[in-house]
Amino acid sequence: MDFSLVTNEAYREIFQSMSEGIIMVDEAGTIAIANRVAEQLFGFAPGGLAGAPLESLLPERYRKGHVNFRRAFNADPHPRRMGFGRDLTALRRDGTEFPVEISLSFTQVQEKLMVMAFISDISQRKQAEDALRRSEEQLIVYAAELEKKVELRTNALNQTISRLEEEIAERKRAEEDARRALERERELNELKSKFVSIASHEFRTPLSTVMSSVSLIRQYKERQEYEKQDKHIDRIKSSVNHLTLILNDFLSLGKLEEGKVDIQSEPVVLSAFLDEIREEVQSFLKPGQVVTTAWPQAVMEVWTDPRTLRNILFNLISNASKYSDPGKPIEVSVEQQNGRVVFQVRDQGIGIPADDQKHLFDRFFRASNAGNVQGTGLGLHIVKRYADLISGEISFTSVYGEGSTFHVSIPHR
Q1: What is the distance between the alpha carbons of residues 62 and 357, in angstroms, rounded to a whole number?
Q2: Helix ranges restricted to H, 199-264
Q3: What residues does 343 pair with on adjacent strands?
Q4: Cα–Cα distances in Å, from 316 out to 182, 209, 323, 332, 385?
Q5: DSSP single-letter state for residue 313
Q6: How far is the CA of 136 from the CAs of 124, 132, 141, in angstroms?
Q7: 108 has which bridge partners?
Q8: H or E stretch including 83?
Q9: CB-side exposure of 358: number of CA atoms within 13 Å?
Q10: Whole-angstrom Cα distance, residue 240 to residue 210?
Q11: DSSP state of 316
Q12: Which contiguous run of DSSP H or E holds residue 341?
């Protein structure tokens, strides 16, 4: 080993005691001197590295490229780390490779450039890094497996929750069906009770009238009192008409409740349709009551179910007649509004008290001022149900003691 390059004894001692391997190389790439650590790193005996080419300490695959790096450094020498950001590998005498870190510096000796390489074996650090990397990879794999398990368990939990939700929904549907069935049964029982109550009251009076009139007719016949006989015949007819209206209400409600009302729309010519209704209602009008009809020329026909519309208007006219005095007119008119046809039935009857109006379409409801006027309290409820079947809307205006107007709006087509 040529220690002439390290002239001072103290410097020589520092050179040899460094924990890093130090190699000094001339411009030709020949090793001039190396400390003991460097010789041990590369597996050489003391003084064995001196005179060896620097590239001999590199794996064969790096040597050609390193010559160019060395020349570039000689052309512009400055202290720096070698291979920053890359893994550097050195070659031992026995041919094994090991990872290193190298810092470069330079000095002038006898006016010649000498490059100093400070070399550290980082095998242990690399092993630790590799172990850490493997741990990280294992952790990533474990995390992925854990995430997969969590996903599977979450999916299983979601499926369980979905099944529970379906079971709960099914149970709620069953409870709702049971509630509806109970409500339906309650309504039917109420309907039966109401029917019995109304039948016992409403049927008794006209039937009694029929029975008494029949007996009196027999007496008047024997006496040949024909005028009185005709009077009681009219009373019988009126009573029979009343019973017929009551039965029609119950039959209509029964069909509506059972969903047995079929709707078949067809063109309805208003002039003929309203004339037929006006003729049909004559049988129950009070003396002096007249039904007038009016419709615009722009609306000659409407597309709807004629039987359902007839039942609606027949019922409204019947109510108008019952709750109006003899001689009071009843007006039936038709208007076109916003693509719909509006039928209006106007009377000059007793009107509807304000407090009763919100219940007017309830089943079995009768206004507080109905008094002795016969009725079941089903008519307007049935009218509302019929209007719903033909996509209609029903409303009314009423002034107590002055009369009422009912509006039934249905689609034009």
Answers
A1: 104
A2: 204-223, 226-258
A3: 334, 408
A4: 33, 26, 11, 10, 13
A5: H
A6: 18, 6, 8
A7: 113
A8: none
A9: 1
A10: 8
A11: H
A12: strand 340-346
Count of alpha carbons within 13 angstroms of residue 94, beta-carbon side: 6
Q: If you write DSSP's letter for every residue of 119-184 in order, what string do you get?
A: EEE-HHHHHHHHHHHHHHHHHHHHHHHHHHHHHHHHHHHHHHHHHHHHHHHHHHHHHHHHHHHHHH
**Domains, the chain, ordered by start:** 3-121 (3.30.450.20), 123-260 (1.10.287.130), 263-411 (3.30.565.10)
Q: Which range is least confidently modeled, 169-173, 238-242, 292-296? A: 238-242
Residue 374: Cβ within 10 Å count: 15
DSSP string, 348-412: -S----GGGGGGTTSTT---TT-TT----S-HHHHHHHHHHHTT-EEEEEEETTTEEEEEEEEE-
- Higher pLDDT, residue 43 or 211: 43
Least confident range of 194-203, 259-268, 372-381, 383-392: 194-203
Residue type, 104: L
Q: Which range (137-151, 226-240, 243-257, 379-393) has the least confidence?
A: 243-257
**Four-residue CA torsion sign, 381, 382, 385, 387:** negative
DSSP-assigned letter for residue 195 = H
| Distance separating alpha carbons of residues 151 and 27, to the nearest angstrom | 64
Going from the C-alpha of 161 to that of each of 148, 154, 168, 170, the distances in angstroms are 19, 10, 10, 14
Contact 321, 356 (CB under 8 A): no
> With the C-alpha atoms ordered 310, 314, 320, 325, is the resulting torsion angle positive or negative?
positive
